[in-house]
Amino acid sequence: MMKRAVTFALFTIFTFVIIACFSASAYPDTSNVRVPVILYHNIMDPDHNGSYDPLLNISPGLFESHMQAIKNDGYTTIGFAEYYNWLQNGVPLPPKPIIITFDDGYYSNYQYAYPVLKKLNMKATIFIIADRRGRALSENPHFSWNQAREMLDSGVIDIQSHTYSHRVLSTLSDSEIAYEMSASKKLIESNLGRKCNVVAYPQGAMNDTVIAGARKAGYKLGCKVGDSGTNSLADDPYAIKRITVNGNQTGARLLEVIEENMFL
Ligand SMILES: [Zn+2]
């Protein structure tokens, strides 16, 4: 009789432990999640000398192999709206979240990146210099507002602000910062018919005054440039770290770089 009671007690404890384990896995602890944010600029083939600046350029073929590597490794591309909901409201992120970004808004993003991302069903965010839409300044043309709308409507690409004219914000007065922030936000919202909530600081140049300007203009998130590390719940929403992708590296090496940065 005693033996049966002990068996019953052990069975009861075992059952509670099993239930507790399953409950825990149904509500995973997301506090240690890290979100890598990677940064590209232009997509083009190397010039006739076979060279380009790999921190600002990547060939179309290599870009596609990067995206394929990220997908095959089980990453889920997310947008900044999901990032914000996680940061502010604790909404869980999908497994292995990653954010893919582009700065400046080059036509090559529309020409090469957009079709690849659409084909692979991956998301990315392009930070545009608002006053350069449809213009061909220097050697690299920028996509138009119509092309921005087409990408946005696909659900694949989000469009956010890289300020109005790409001036280095940390060198500007408060009113100049306010103009760069607000004029780009207004142009994006009026041309694309949706809220612009994220700014990427040109050259990553930011300080407390720049962050105050971003807040005042109504931005909810701000991105830096050229960092190491990834982003956790404890990090400043106005100082999101981004890893600049080296355009000479293979997809396999990119995965290693992301992994190396995961808990820096
Ligand atoms: Zn830029």
Written description of the protein model:
- This protein has 264 residues and is of the alpha/beta class.
- The protein has one domain (35-261): Glycoside hydrolase/deacetylase (TIM Barrel), CATH 3.20.20.370.
- It is built from eight helices and ten strands.
- The strands form three sheets. Strands 1, 4, 5, 6, 7 and 10 form a six-stranded parallel sheet that branches. The protein has a two-stranded parallel ribbon with strand order 2-3.
- Helix 4 links the parallel strand 5 (97-104) and strand 6.
- Helix 2 (60-72) runs parallel beside helix 4 (107-120), helix 2 packs across helix 8 (251-261) and helix 6 runs parallel beside helix 7 (208-217).
- The longest helix is centred in the first third of the chain and has 25 residues, at 2-26.
- The chain is globular.
- The termini are far apart.
- Residues 16-27 have low confidence and may be disordered.
